[in-house]
Amino acid sequence: MAEPESGPTGPTGPTGHAGHAGHAGSGDRSSPLAEALARVGDRWTLLVVEALLPGPQRFNDLIGLIPGIAPNILSERLKRLERAALLVARPYSERPPRVAYELTAEGKDLAGALRLLAHWGAQHADPADAPRHHSCGTPVEARWYCPTCDQLVEAAPHDGTELHYV
What we know:
By secondary structure, this protein is α+β, with helices and mostly antiparallel strands. It has helices at residues 32-40, 43-52, 59-65, 71-83, 105-108, 110-123; strands at residues 6-7, 10-11, 57-58, 87-93, 98-103, 144-146, 151-153.
């Protein structure tokens, strides 16, 4: 088995590029992507967040909404999301004790990231599965937008500048 390639800051990071584990002069702080992945970076966690986007759900409802998830995995992911302050468990019954799970504002902020991942997935899957505009049926596209400049932002600017993450 081959060992991961080493770069200036150690092994290749989750993006496959050496040196993306931190920023120049940032010490041992990780990148924004690494921090996000540490909180929600596995398949089941993202599917739980997706299932909760429309509103609060009970445990058994989530089991039905997320095909293939085992109850022990769902329970662990719910606890992890609660510890990360991305969801809250609100009691709805004392006897027996039961809760409904609801995303916090920070958890709801993941909707945009999930849309981008879904868009990427649709580009690499059957075009019939692409998310579509409900009014006209056209596949939707995700775009970066700068509200200060009131402009769409290209992923690779033509003037030689780079897109920076802060």
